[in-house]
Design goal:
16 helices; globular; binds ligand V47; alpha/beta; four-stranded mixed beta sheet
Amino acid sequence: MLRPGFFYFMTLQSFIKQAGLADILEKVEAGVRLTAEDGLQLYRSNDILAIGFLANIVRNRLNGDNSYFIYNQHINYSNICINLCKFCAFGKEKDSPLAYQMSVEEVKKKVRDRLDEPITEIHMVGGLHPELPFQYYIDLLHAIKEVRPEAHIQAFTCVEIAHLAELAGRTIPDTLAVLKEAGLGSMPGGGAEVFNPRIRQLTCEKKLPGEEWLEVAKSAHRQGLRTNATMLYGHIETIEERVEHLLALRQTQDETGGFLAFIPLAFHPKNTEMADIAKTSGIDDLKNIAVARLLLDNFPHIKAYWVMIGPKMAQLALSFGADDMDGTVKEEVITHMAGAETDQAIGSNTLVKLIREAGRVPVERDTLYNVIRRY
Ligand code: V47
């Protein structure tokens, strides 16, 4: 006698087949690596449920029902920046009335002010400041460690590291070694944008080229510093350029295994030089999460960053490939300068509720995904 499960399986098969994704389902089930053409096919499809179903297979295989979050605090030490990327509303010229620069004491105060909260990670990035000496960055790390010795410091994107190396007249490995010695624990994934030179030329021509971003990440990984990776989507990039970006990350991860999480970043146009571009849609937000989960088979985690796509979409993303919602954040600035309508912080109780309602298990983690508490 045929069991009900058989009919369920047949329905799913025909559902995926109707979406034209049967070949990809076969590969996903067999654990066969997807190609660039598969990635394009997924991006071209608007059958979001079928795409999500496929991504969910990989998500469940790698992370089960776990959905992670972290108790973290963002600090942006300065928005003064020599790159002034067209998609960025945060970076300002030194003499702009909106420019700011925190002293080491001010950063220390920000950490001290939240000592009564169970923060385990300080996430710190800033613009490319033309003058601050290398010692300032070392002092920042020492100061944070002094106030909150047990906190993990996730700081400085690959782009900042290359800038600091240049300012200090040091090699990338040497710069990383000094920062690590001063307390750097890992690096966030910003500054990757879209690696393709056409996009960099049109949106951030002064920024570190894509290959060099990847070289800095590899250098960090070789020293045991784990890093994240991002992709800024929803502006002028093509789906071919998205797939190329994801496959470059996958190739690098094959070489080093040093990436922890991938975070698709939804472009926010307000107050930028690209303000005429519409905000991303819910379908594109979910599709970028799902396609990333499917192509980045060697990345342990995919983050749905609630700040950029909103807590509701991030909750849905937990069924479309994401297994992490980032964290409490506390004081988000970069996306809010570009018109984000989300709050600047979220309570851990809200994250737990969102995850539970998605039918997943909330897991508070540290930066390196060690479990702090399973709810
Ligand atoms: O590097 C700049 C992007 C990044 C805009 O590693 C914008 O866990 C959208 O990288 N609209 C900074 N995005 C944020 C970032 C990040 C955030 C959370 C977690 C992690 C992690 C990394 O934001 C920048 C740039 O790529 N960005 N302007 C904008 N208008």
